[in-house]
Fold this protein.
Amino acid sequence: MRAYYAYAKKTFLGKSAYRFDHLMGILSTCLQFFIFYEIYRALYGGSDSVDGITMSMVTTNFVLSFGLGAVFTPNDYFLPSRIWDGSISTELLRPMSFKGRMIAENVGEAVFNLIFKFIPILIIALLTTGMSKPAGALNLILFIVSAILGYGVLWTISFAVQMTSFWLINIWSLITIKDVFVNILSGKMIPLWFMPVWMAGVLKYSPFASIYFTPVEIYLGQLSGSEIGYKCLLQIIWIVVIYAVGDFLWNKGQKKLVVQGG
C-alpha cells in the first residue's frame, strides 16, 4: 500500500506544479457552469419553477455536477499511451499491480481537483447563485458517500474503455463517445428531470445516472432512506459489473498485446 500511496502523492504534487493549468481548469469549469446557468435562467423566464422543478434545484444540479466533473477526471489514456510508446512491456514487469497504480494515480489527481477545483467552484457558486443547501447533515454525508461511489462508476467505465486499446490501439473515438454519453445521460448537461418520462425511467437504472445525478438527488433530499440505500447499492453493482468486464478484457488483452515501440 505504501507504494501506491507514493504514486498518489507524486501525482498530487505533480498537478500542483502546473498552476496556470490549474487556474485555467477552474475558469473553464466556472465558464461552463455559468453558460448553462444563464441558458436555463432564460428558459425559466423569471419563473421560480417549471413542472415542480425550481431554478434553485437546477442551479444546484449544475454546481454539483460540474464541480464533481472537475474532480472526476480519470486518465483515459493511462494504458493506451503506454501501448503506443511500447513502455507497457516494462510496466508489466514492475513488482506491483498495474491496475493498482492506475487507481492510485487517478485518486491522487482526484484529491488535488477536490481541494483546488471543486471547493473554489463551490464557493464561487454559493456567493453568486441561488444554490440550495443540503437537505440535512445526514444528506450531506450520504451525498459524499454516493459521490465517491459515482467516481467509482466513472473510473470503471474509463477502465473498461481503455482495455479495448489492446485490440484497437487508437481508441480516441471510443473515449469521445464515452464522454458524450456521460455528459448527456448523467444529468450533467441536461438534468434528468427534463428528460422524457420513459427515458428518465430507463436512465435511472443506467450507470450514467449513478455518476452525478444520484448524488444530487441525495443532496437535495429527493430520495427516502430506502431509495438512497437502493441507489447506492445500484452504484456498487455497476462498479462490480463494469470492473469485471474491464478485468476480463485486461486478462485477454495481455495475450494479444502488440508493442508499437520501446
Q: What stands out?
A: The mean pLDDT is 88. The first strand starts at residue 49 and ends at 50. The beta strands are 49-50, 53-54.
